[in-house]
Amino acid sequence: MRGPSPYLVLPVFFLIFCFTASCSEQRRVYIVYLGQHKGLRTGQEILEDHHSLLRSVKNSEEEALNSLVYSYKHSINGFAALLTEEEAAKLSAMEEVVSAFPGEARWSPHTTRSWEFIMQEEGLRGWEMEWMTSKAKLGKEVIVGVVDSGVWPESQSFSDAGMGPIPERWKGICEEGDAFESLNCNKKIIGARYYLKGYEAYYGSLNRTYAYRSPRDHDGHGTHTASTVAGRVVPGVSALGGFARGTAAGGVPLARLAIYKVCWPIPGPNPNIENTCFDADMLAAFDDAIGDGVHVLSVSIGATGVPPKYSNDGIAIGALHAAKHDIVVACSAGNDGPVPATVSNLAPWMITVGASSIDRAFDSLVLLGNGVTIKGQTVTPSVLKSSEFYPLVYAGDAVVPGTPGNVSGQCLPNSLDAKKVRGKIVVCLRGSGLRVAKGLEVKRAGGAAIILGNAEANGNEIPVDAHVLPGTAVSSDDAIAILKYIEAARRPSAKIGSARTVLGVTPAPVMAAFSSRGPNRVEPNILKPDITAPGLNILAAWSESSSPTKLEDDHRSVKYNLYSGTSMSCPHVSAVAALLKSLHPYWSSAAIRSAMMTTATVVNTRGGPLTDAAGQAAGPLEFGSGHVRPNHASDPGLVYDASYEDYLLFACSSIGAQMDPSFPCPETSPSPSDLNYPSIAVSDLNGSVTVRRTVTNVGRGPARYRVTVTEPTGVSVRISPGVLSFKRVGQKKSFTVTLKARDTPSKVYVAGSYTWSDGAHVVRSPIVVSVA
Asked: How many helices (H) and strands (E) does the chain have?
C-alpha cells in the first residue's frame, strides 16, 4: 500500500454554476470561527447571529440562508458557509471573527495481542493486569467518541451483554440512515451520528452504491479504531486464514462508544481505497461530541502537505474547545515517515501518537534456488499449488515497453508483461502504488506468487497483507539479496513456505518507518509526536462490507482484520486516557496527557534503547516521550498541568492569533517554550535560554523529588532548584531549565532528558534542541 492507513486529503473547491453577476466568483465552503460562546444562549439565538454575519456579506436574506452549511452551537462558536474569497475576506476582517479559512479536505484517516504486549512490557502478569483494569472498572462510566468512518455495529466487539445503564451525562443521539436504525445503538454504542455536508458540497451527492449515508462503516477503518479503544472481550478471533488467533479486546472493554462518521470515499476507481474528511464536517462532529458529553475523543485523522496554523485547523480548533471541557483528544501523528518534519496534529492541547511494533510476526520462509533461506512475513492464506521450486523473476525485467524506468520494478497496474511472468514468482518493490495492488497486478499478468521487497526507507518493518494470490514480504536487505541472486543465477527459482504466527519477537517495540517524524512545522518549540503505541499489524474488528485489502476486485469478507498505521496506535492511547479518566475523574486533560508522557518508556524488551526500522537508535523526534505504559501512567507522581487560558496565551505567542475574542493577547506573550508542557523543545537556540515549568504532586502524600539530567550533545542543562519538596497532594512547585549551546553544529537536532524521582516515581521529560 502507498501508506499504512490510506485516507487521503485533497484541497476543496466547491463550484456553483451561476447565471447572475452577483455570483461571478467561485464559491466554496469556508469555516468562520468566532471563538467561544458568550453566556447562555439558545441554539436559535446562535443561529440568528450566524445568519446576521452572513447577511452582512450576502445580497439577500435568502442567499444568506441558503449559503449556510453548518452552525456550530455547543462549545465552538462559528459556522461553515458557501462563500467567495472576497466574502470570506470581509468576514475575516470583522473584529468578532477569529479566522475564516477554506473547509478543506486536506484530512485523511491516517486487538488480540497489542494490549497484552503493552502490559507485559511493563512487567505485568496475570493478576496485576486484572488488578489495574478492575480498579478502573474497565471504564464503564467513560464515554469515548470516535471520529472516523463509522462503525459496523453487528460486530461481537460491540456487544452490550452484561453492561449497565447508559451514563447519565450522555446527551447524544442515535442517528438513523442507510442500513442503520436506532436499534443498532445499544449500551456499548450509545450514540452515532454522520456528517457529510462539507463532502457533498465538493463532490455532490454521495454515491450510495459504495457508501452508506448513515453511521454504518463501509470502509473498515472506523470499526477497527473503535474496537481497539473499547471492543468487548471476544475469544477465538483471527484474521483471514486464521492468523493472529486469540482473544480480541479493546483497552477499555466496558467503556461506552459514541460514533461520529466524518470520512467518506473519494469517487473514482476503487473509491474505498482512499477516504477523505472535510474540516467543516469534522468541526461539526467535535461540536456535537462536546455537547453530547464524551470524556475522550479518538481522532485517527491527519493532514497531508503543509500543516495549517492552529487557527485555520479544524481539528486543532475542535480539540481546543474539547480541552476547555477537559475532554482528552488523542490524534494520530501521520504515516509519512521516515521523512523528518512530517508529523501532523501539532497543537499542544492534544496528544499526538506515533506508531511502533509489538512482539508478533507472521513468518513465511522463502527458499532460493541456491539454498539460501530468507524470512518473510505474510498473512496471505493462499499457498502455491506445488511444493516444487518456481521460476523467479524481478518485475523490472518483465515490464511492458514504455514503463518508466524509475518505477519499473514496482508492479504498478498494467505494467507487467504476461509472457514474462506467467507461472513465475515475481519480485516487486515497494514505492509508488498500493502494496496489495501490486499483488493484484501480478495475478492479472498470470504470475504464481509475489515477493514484495521493502525499499531502503522501510528497513525491516513489514506491514503484512492478505494478498489475492500466494505471496510474502521481505526487508530491504533481504530484497537486495534476492535481486542479487536473480542477477547472478542462470535460472533463478524460489519457493514460499506457509506462514505462521510467532509471538515473543525481539526487539520490541520498534518504531515503524511509516510513523511521521518531528520536528513540529507549525511551532518547533513544541515537541511532536508526544508518544508512541502499537500501530503495526494490529488485529481488530472490521466492516463486513469491506474486503481485507479494500480492493474493488477483492470479494472476500472478514469480521476481523490486520491493519497498520498511526490510525491504529492512536486508539491505544485513547483507551489509556479513558482508563486514567476512570481512575482519576477530576484530572484535567493536560494532567492525563502528562501522566502518559512522563511515564513512557524509551527501552525495548531487550533492555536496549528503542530503535527504528533500520535498527538504529530512535529519539524524541520519532517517539516523543516514549512508548505508552498504562500502569505507570495511573500513578505518575507529578503532572504538568495547563489550562484553556494557557493555551490561548500560547496561541498568541506562537501564531499571533487571538483564538478567543474574549481573551485578548497581551502586549508581550510568554515564549511558546514556556507552555507548561511535559517535554521541552527549543528551536534555533542562540546562546542560552531559560524555560519555566510547574509540576503538581498527585502522589499519595508528602514527597521529595531530586532531578537528574542527561544533556543533549553540545548543550549544557542546568535545573534550579534541583530538589522539590511537597508537603501535600495537590501542591505545585516551579523550576527553571537553562539550556546553553556549547559546540553543537547549527540546524542539527540533539536530544537529552531530565528526570524527577522520589524513589518510587520516575517522571521523565525529553529535551530536544536545535542550535541557530
From this structure: 17, 36
Q: How confident is the model at residue 754 (pLDDT cuts 50, 70, 90)?
A: very high
H helices of 506-629, in order, are 566-583, 589-598, 620-623
If one counts every other C-beta atom within 10 angstroms of the C-beta of residue 181, the result is 11
Q: Single out the residue of 535, 473, 545, 517 nearest to residue 209, CA to CA.
A: 545
What are the residues whose beta carbons fall under 8 Å from the beta carbon of 528, sequence distance 6 or more?
333, 343, 345, 346, 352, 518, 519, 520, 624
- 757 is a catalytic site residue: no
- The pTM for the full model equals 0.92
Lowest mean pLDDT among 218-227, 301-310, 366-375, 693-702: 301-310
C-alpha cell recorded at residue 246: 486469540
| Catalytic residue from among 567, 588, 594, 679 | 567
567 is catalytic: yes
- Whether 387 sits among the annotated catalytic residues: the reply is no
Distance CA 497, CA 489 (A): 21
DSSP state at residue 253:
T
Question: Would you place residue 1 in the very low, low, confident or very high pLDDT band (cuts 50, 70, 90)?
Answer: very low
Average pLDDT over residues 218-236: 95
Closest CA to 194 of 180, 167, 213, 221: 213
pLDDT tens column, 501-525? 999 999 999 999 999 999 999 999 9
* Arithmetic mean of pLDDT over the chain: 91
Query: Which DSSP symbol is given to 399?
Result: B
Label the pairing between strands 99-102 and 263-265: unpaired
Cα separation of 702 and 699, whole Å?
Answer: 8
More confident residue, 706 or 270: 706
Taking CB atoms within 8 Å and a gap of at least 24, the contacts of 16-21 are: 16/82
Cα separation, 241 vs 549, in Å, equals 14
- Residue 171: count other Cβ atoms within 10 Å of its Cβ: 12
Short-list 234, 73, 236, CA closest to 159: 234
Strands 351-356 and 302-303: unpaired
Buried/exposed code over 243-273 (b: 16+ C-beta within 10 A; e: otherwise): bbbbebbbbbbbbbbbbbbbbbbbeeebbbb
Question: What amino acid occupies position 242?
Answer: G
Which of 51, 67, 148, 217 is flagged as catalytic?
A: 148
Minimal CA–CA distance to 173: which of 292, 304, 287? 292
If 0-12 CB within 10 Å is exposed, 13-18 middle and 19+ buried, where does residue 340 land?
Answer: middle
Spatial contact of 741 and 685, defined as CB atoms under 8 Å apart: yes
Question: Residue 269's pLDDT is what?
Answer: 79
pLDDT at 394 over 60: yes
Q: Which of 221, 572, 584, 627 is catalytic?
A: 221
Residue 496: φ, ψ to 5°: -115, 125
Exposure of 91 in the CB half-sphere (CA atoms within 13 A): 31
d(CA 433, CA 740): 46
The closest of 261, 352, 258, 260 to 570, measured between CA atoms, is: 352
Strands (E), 231-273: 234-237, 246-248, 256-261, 263-265
Exposed/middle/buried for residue 20 (C-beta within 10 Å: 0-12, 13-18, 19+):
exposed
Alpha-carbon span 205 to 213, nearest angstrom = 10
Res. 116: pLDDT tops 80: no
